């Protein structure tokens, strides 16, 4: 399972991706990914919203994850 980070999310983590396959316990759902991120990187709790895509498709919190999934963390985007 690989987490990919974009925009401010990349700045918070300090890198563009994290490979979770070596972790003993993988997140089981999109909601678990959000909890993992806010616990490990408290600045995620400051974001007004956070979109997550699993295997290139936007996913709701209840989507179940599998070991080989690619998870993109997409922060809010402002424009002008």
Describe the structure.
- The chain has one domain (2-74): Roll (Ubiquitin-like (UB roll)).
- The mean pLDDT is 91.
- β3 and β4 form a beta hairpin.
- It is of the alpha+beta class.
- Strands 2-1-5-3-4 form a 5-stranded mixed sheet.
- 22% of the residues lie in helices and 22% in strands.
- The chain contains 2 helices and 5 strands, in the order βαβαβββ.
CATH topology: Ubiquitin-like (UB roll)
Query: Unreliable stretches, pLDDT < 50, 5 or more residues?
Result: none
Mean pLDDT: 91
Q: What is the fourth-level CATH superfamily?
A: Beta-grasp domain
Order of helix and strand elements from N to C terminus: EHEHEEE
How is this fold's topology laid out?
Layout lengths: L1 E4 L1 H7 L3 E3 L10 H11 L10 E4 L2 E2 L11 E5 L6
Provide a short characterization of the protein structure.
The chain has a 5-stranded mixed beta sheet.
List keywords for this structure.
80 residues, 22% helix, 2 helices, 22% strand, alpha+beta, single chain, Ubiquitin-like (UB roll), 5-stranded mixed beta sheet
